Amino acid sequence: MSDQTEPTSQILLCSNCFTDEGLRIDAAKHGLEQQSDCPNCQSPDGQKLTLDHIKSLAWRFFVSGTTIRCEYGAAPVIQFNEHRYGQSDIAPSAWLENDIRLIEEAAKIGFFHYGPRLWMVGEVEPLKALQDPKTRPQIIERILREYPEGTLSEGSKFYRLRVSPERPAEPSEYDSPPVAFAGRGRLDSPGLSVMYGSQDLDVCIHECRASTEDELYVATLKGQRDLRLLDLTHPLEETETEFESLDMAIHMLFLARSHSYDIARDIALAAKEAGFDGVIYPSFFSLIRTGAHPFETAYGLSLRRFHPERNQYVEADTIRNLALFGRPMESGLVSIECINRLILTQVGYRGHFGPVEY
Question: How far apart, in whole angstroms, are the C-alpha atoms of residue 276 and residue 322?
């Protein structure tokens, strides 16, 4: 057996090598616990970093850490690769200059300002057509035709959370709001009440923007018959590029903020008109729940479309929410199994750092 160290396991740096506090903290979180001197700074107690650790650190800090969300889509300002080694053209803060040189030399990479493919920032033809009220109906017709029907099976459970209901023990408090109050959420509109729920309780808490000061109550609901739902979380099989992708348009639509609500409401109205009991849709909080990075690419191609295990990749990054039309409890489509008070005892945040100048 060879005594030589495999290149991927060779220690190159440690967390104590870095001046920037964000880089140091992130390196300490993800590095190796080894009681040995760092080959760079000779520190015995820093978390040790291999080549793979250093590249992952560079991606988190400089790529994910400079990603900017647009009205639709998102893209990083900085990228790196081996071809740019020795040719970095970014302008970091003074306290980052030595750290960048350390990373570049250890990983043999160079950083550069990234010019994203325009689909990443919303230049997707079906999405642009959805934003225009004149062309929106044609795309909604495609959505109803191309997305599959899902089923909430009889007896299936899901959760609905309320913040400070007037009568917490009253089942009707957990039905959809009366139609007079409709039109404030992503899928409800004047004249169409919607019951929002999820089979992921943590997402219910996020969706309600709940805080530790709130009085929270959660109802466990159960379907009384099989419910027909338009499944907008299903990854479509397409031959088009990202620029013509309906799948990408819907993916971006549900990761967008409130400016997208009028489009989602029109889709919901059309689904109801088509006879669906509701829709399954991706939670806006899918990324924060799963820890996924928005609109990941390899060589400018969307991993959502070209990942070798595409369905598993999409499923792992998607939290499926339910939106049931009308007042499902009042109409007997769902029933209350139980109601509980929910007490938040601990809140945690997980994140990473990025540069302030580049």
Answer: 12
Beta pairing class for 216-223 and 194-198: unpaired
C-alpha triplet 270, 268, 322: angle, nearest 5°: 140
Q: Which residues pair with 342 in a beta bridge?
A: 216
Selection from 200, 202, 150, 208 nearest residue 174 by Cα: 208
For residue 8, report the phi and psi dihedrals to the nearest 5 degrees.
-70, -20
- CA 203, distance to chain mean position in Å, is 12
Range 308-328 burial, b when 16+ CB lie within 10 A, else e:
eeeeebbeebbbbbbbbbbbb
Backbone angles phi, psi at 160, to 5 degrees: -135, 125
Q: What is the mean pLDDT of each run of 10 residues along the chain (358 residues)?
A: 54 97 97 94 96 97 96 97 95 95 97 96 98 98 98 97 96 93 94 96 92 94 98 96 97 97 98 98 94 89 92 94 97 97 91 94
Domain boundaries, the chain: 7-116, 121-342
How is residue 99 written in tokens? 């750290």
Half-sphere exposure of 221 (CA within 13 A, CB side): 35
Cut 0.85: pTM above it? yes
Q: Where are the alpha helices (DSSP H) in the chain?
A: 21-30, 51-58, 97-107, 125-131, 136-146, 201-207, 246-254, 261-273, 286-290, 303-306, 310-316
How many other C-beta atoms are found inside a 10 Å radius of the C-beta of residue 45?
Answer: 13
Secondary structure E strands in 11-106: 13-14, 48-49, 67-69, 74-76, 78-81
Which alpha helices (DSSP H) does 174-277 contain, by range?
A: 201-207, 246-254, 261-273
d(CA 323, CA 228): 11
